[in-house]
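Quarterly update from the structural biology core.
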Amino acid sequence: MQKFYKPSRVAVIFVIMAILLTLYMTTLYKLQIYDTNAKENALLARDTSTQTVTLTADRGDILDRNGIVLVSTRPAYNVTLSYDTLRGRDDYNKILLDLIHTAVDNGVPYNDTFPVTTGAPFTYLSDMTDAQKSNLSAYLKYFKYFDMDSNISASDLIVKMKEHYGIDYTTNIADARLIIGIRYEMELRAVKSLNPYVFANDVGIDFLTLVKTKHLPGVNIETSAKRVYHTTYAAHILGYTAKMDSGEYTDKYKALGYAFNSIVGKDGAEKAFEQYLHGTDGSQVITKSDNGTVMDVNTTKEPSPGENVFLSIDIGLQAVCEDSLAARIDMINAGPDRTDEDRVTGGAVVVTDVNTGEVLASCSYPTYDLSNILNNYTDLMNNSSHPLFDRATMGTYLPGSTFKMVTALAGLRKGTITATTTINDTGVFTKYANVGFTASCWIYNQTGHGHGLENVVTALRDSCNFFFYTVGDNTGLPDINKAATDFGLGSKTGIELPESTGVLADKEWKAAHTKEPYWSSGDTVVTSIGQGYNAFTPIQLADYVATIANGGTRYALTILDNVRSADFSSVVQKPEPRVLGTIQEASYLRLLQQGMQEVASVGTASTVFGKYPVKVAAKTGTVQTGGTNAKLNNGIFVCYAPADNPQIAISLVVEKGTSGSNIMLIARDIMDYYFHSDVKISVATDNTILP
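Predicted structure, tokenized:
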């Protein structure tokens, strides 16, 4: 049978058909699918925006030496506004008003610092802060086309700003004021380079959900970290956190890789140990549609939490110090003869470990609540009692008779006196009477006679001014100041907190700071008993007494026990005790120790410590700051214990506390807790320290 086709021709036909079919399918796919997707993607690209946000690292915890959590972090959610998204939109004002009404209707406070009342008739706020005045001035200066003078009324300002922001006539004036407040906040950031505006901080889940369901363009929810304080004690030690300002970012944190709106330590341990606590922030790219719907989230860098800082303080001991200081001050102020003029204005307590330099407690009165510091900052700054001022590390006070151990060491070193040298206290030091200078011993003012024969130990016991007038005069200021320097007085202690150097005066200092250019012999005489120009911090006094207690080693003070990793599994940093200097004359120090022990056992501190179960070494001091009014005198007290095996040193200062003897009960309360108390700190389920 004859074939009507050849196989080769059939093959060719099939190949041609396959090619045509492939071309057809490819073209169909391109037209119906590929090009459609490309167009959709192009359209989507035009209708979406990307935003890179910082994923804030969890800040490390701060704990006391026993592992009690003092400060921790919890997540918080803030409502923010995107200026770039909102500007140029026709519905800008409508979006803001919707958000504001949502907040008001649900009782959620939001941030509006525009210093004009929210209701007509509009007036400037009567309690406008300096910051609000400065911000408004900068804002008006920037927008020159307002053409306003400094006396424009609040009502006229509202009218001008209503026009400036394109708020139409259909919007009632009360709502216009609300819109103006937020738009002012938004533009103020550009005018003054302030931190980004946050509409509402730390909002609850209900409001958060409500805002999300509205899909308001330019309205974002951002996660932040909120510091939680588990104690009301140790405010000056712990410090606080807040957003860095532009100066901090430029001068320090930019080079360290911080985001420009990072939360950083502003004071106390939060600032001192920022490098451990901060952690490393991450980043995330968020893609959103035009109506605010999140289309994609891409985490480009995971955040790394901060490390945990264990302080050297014992929060139980800290609480005793603060409570006892406050109670004693309240008792003094409650006296029937106390007036507004002689009310106690402040005080401080410091407790250190004499063998390591660790600060076990440090408090300043009055204090404040860290959990509300940012809300109350202006009031705290304007408070006449200066609660933000840390008197323990920054306050400088004449040391009074607590300085007599310095004069004793200087005299012993120079050979002015020995252990057996006696000086006859006749009551009045008259060596320079011919030039108009005399000085009396405190006992002479009470009895009309002196202490009689005194050696260095009994002179410390009796706090004999006459003895130390004579020793200081014969020893000379340079040797006295050398001994003071060896004890760390007039020098920084090395503590991680801001501290004052204090004043260790000499003739150059007097010439530079007073109207009397010459240093007189009388100046040396009064300096010898802690009067005159010298002024030291309570923390310096504690370090000074600790140096006497441990036999001459002056340790740098510290509030850091150790730093541990974020999961607490390893120790990152454990500082060793650091020696700043030593006093080699052990035999001289033993005389000082003996004199201080007699102060506590039979001398001016014996009423409190004479029969105390732990042997104490102490020195009282009274600083005459009020002339003849003894109620204006500062009370100073220093001590260490146990006297025969020293562990802790204590310094106390109470402004207008009358005398050291009047405040030493505070030291006894501290020792009761440290040596005898079995009370342990209790912690609630939310980790709040219980009283």
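The longest helix spans residues 7-47.
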